[in-house]
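User: For my dataset I need records formatted as: sequence, then structure tokens, nothing else. Please produce one.
Assistant:
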Amino acid sequence: MGADAAAVTGVDLIAAGIGAATAVLVAAWVLPAPAISGSGMLASWLLPVLGSAGFGAGALLLVRIDLRSHTLPNSLVFAATLCACGPLTLASVIAGEGWSALVPWAAAAAMTLIAFGLWASRTGMIGGGDVKLMPAACYVGVWHWGTGGWIGGMLAFAVLLAGMLAVGGLAAILRGRREFAAGPLLLAAAGSAAVLGALAGQ
């Protein structure tokens, strides 16, 4: 596989576009109706939708590459993190959340430490690329629960991820493999937790 398998192709970019468009449609459906104008609309709707587009594009792109090469390139993980989490963090700042805006990042840091422990244990369940992707995935999953519901968001993300990893691990065992691509499951758990959080806040 190697570098050629991890290279971005035209089909990958088309998939990223489809992911962005799908995420925007889902965000427009589940997010609260936007404020009339001004910073309220920017913080409550436009920036979250932009962050959703970044997450959707990055997710589909990374899923294709991970399934093809079993790697998550650092540059793409960083770009996806910036595009998905940057607008959401800015939305929290504009909304005047202050230090509370750091709560989802704290949850992401905690989950990343757990992921690092799983990777260090060499169980084959989590790869190094998955550890690098964990901060963005957890942040997106928790952010949509709001600063007051971050515990529920973190639990929802953790339960969804654990269930998906269990299914993925079982499928790998049945196919006679010790390892499997966890990146797609990580991103699926993040997206599912984000949608649940947005719906819970309606």
